[in-house]
From TrEMBL:
It holds the Pfam family Sigma70_r2. InterPro entries: ECF_Sigma-70_Domain, RNA_pol_sigma70_r2, RNA_pol_sigma_r2. Residues 84-120 are annotated as: Disordered. This is RNA polymerase sigma-70 region 2 domain-containing protein. SUPFAM superfamilies: Sigma2 domain of RNA polymerase sigma factors (SSF88946). It comes from the Bacteria. Residues 23-88 form the RNA polymerase sigma-70 region domain.
Amino acid sequence: MVPESRRSPRSSALPSTFCAVVAERRLLSNLAYCLLDSVGAAEVAVQETYTRWYTMPDEEQERIDRPLTWLVGTLVRICVDRRDSSSRHAGGRAVDPAGRPDPAGPTPRRFRAWREVPKL
């Protein structure tokens, strides 16, 4: 590793940007995992969130003041929708992605409030 004093000023731009992107993705993955209790389902939700962001027209993206806030809000709605749809498919009982009943039961009330949050 090159000591900090020997690095050129321009070389620090890429690592800091890269670190920010990795930190953003880690935050979204951790949040999705907390909501869905599955690494695979969390990864799918994060991918869907990024797909919605990058397929959004440029004009809409420019109107969003805080992209991370938009990403988190969208991710939470995706996760809540997934939990609700898995509950409906299991006859009212929550299931994990493998189809086994979730011991935690149906979606807690605290997550239902996110459904009423207006889309940004």
